[in-house]
Amino acid sequence: MLSYLLFIATIGGIYGLLALSLNLIWGGAGMVNLGLAGFFAVGAYASALLTTAGQAPIAAGWLVAFVAAGIAGLTVTLSTTRLREDYLAIVTLGFAEVVRLVAANEIWLTRGTDGISGIPGPWKRALGPDFNGVYFLIVLGVLLVVFFVVRRIDRAPYGRALRAIREDAQVAEVAGKNVLRFKTEAFALSAAIAGLAGALYGHFTSYIAPDLFLPLITVYIFLAVASGGTGRPAGALVGAYLVMALLESSRFFVEGIPGVTAVQRAALKELLIAVALIVVLRLKPSGVLPERIPPAPRSS
Amino acid sequence: MIVVQALVNGLVSGTLLAVPAIGFTAMFAVLRFPNFAVSGVATLGAFAGYLAYGAGLQMAGSLAAAFVAAGLAGLLFDKIAHLPLVKEGALPAAIASIATGLVLENVVRLGFGNEPRGYDRPIARDVFFGEIRVSPQQLETMGLALALMLAVFAALAFTRIGKAMRATADNPDLAALKGIRPERIATLASLIGMGLVGVGGMLLGLDSSIDPLTGTRILLSLFAAAVLGGLGSVPGAVLGAFLIGIAEELSVLVVGSQYRAAVGFVAILAVLTLRPRGLLGERAF
User: Fold this and answer.
1) Interchain contact, A94 vs B265, CB within 8 Å
2) Which residues contact A74 (CB under 8 A, 6 or more apart)?
3) N or C: which end of chain A has fewer CB within 10 A?
4) Structural domain includes residue A298
């Protein structure tokens, strides 16, 4: 039971990182990333390849995952120069699909649909059964660091500039803000955080494959951010654990229905998540922890 | 010769792709948000057509069933989930529409499972033009797709309601001032746009097989066609669909069939970098 709870708590923490990543751009700058699962995958693969085939230390893998996903984020935004929201939505969605295609087909690098197994975990052999507990603390540590960084950004003048862009990019531009630069930087940082989450995920489960990075993960994270409260980092964290609770409880609920095949059970679970997202967006778009906009400091 | 065959195949698949692309771009023009529910709606249309065809309806009747089922489902979700959100911006509506696509995909999965299903059309011998091979079934579906497209163009160009739709897409405020009721135009755009998407799902599934992910698989090609031609431009979507169809077939010769699905993405990146408003511009109806 304890190891089950630790597993849930760790995966929830990784979703929490993804939610912080999404909140930074969606809540912060009003941009979307429908390819969150793609950046998650880029990080997971970068770190897994570096530490298995490349024999590099795990910490180096995580750093490279962060950087690689950030660079991928930059590339995606640079080609969408004006970063208009509808185009960005389409491009990021396509990005995630292409990442999965590459992961499934470049067998020499990624071992295709077989996936990469045997991804090392930190001190896994020495820790034995305590691994899950220690790894949870590591994820929690990373989560807290990222949380305080994005909350700092949120409250800093930089975050105010992002919100100004979200409310009205034209006015922000007139006020002398380099809108394109703010958006590009925020998106790259957000993608990098998603990549870091991917690396943490791979080293926890020790196995990754293209089918683990379905667009469904992106929907989970949108549900997390929307239900927790768009525009507030603490809301993103609360939302991530809410989604985790919904996912796990729906499993017990769905398994209780008699005469349902495994495929139908999976379909019911996905259906539940999708309906929950629509309901939250329609009925409680501000989420559990609504955004607080602090008053601007008075200039003397 | 192999290149010419690929061009012909591309022309055929481009014609089929043009149908849902018109639907998507027309909805974007009127409703002002990218409706990602097209993936689920295309799947729904494909399965509705499958049921109708299995029940003994002819091809045209089955396509009509796909149109009605997809149009009504699309309209329903637009009314209850998407359009109330558009007031807050295109993004919340677009996100909700992803959830809608997932809902429809899983409703189909609940009923039909994951196994691929074929339409069981009568087998016919391929027709040869020189060394170029075309199947009579391809010709039939292509003819139906072309007829449908012509009907849409004629409706937009000549009927009162078509002109009202174009006016609303062009300038909603001015159109409302002239007595055009925006809600009615929105309803029509959802119904017809999603209907076309459903027909497209069926047309593209006819040659192979359909399953709950049928719509998801055509999503990128569909978006690429619309973006390439210019989001919101109906002739642009047709041009874009032909180009994407041909590019996809040619890409198979170069990089193999596994990267076919990436062609749409590359095309989107290229057009956004070089000509962000698309080949025909955004507002050319």
Assistant:
1) yes
2) A184, A187, A188, A191
3) C
4) no
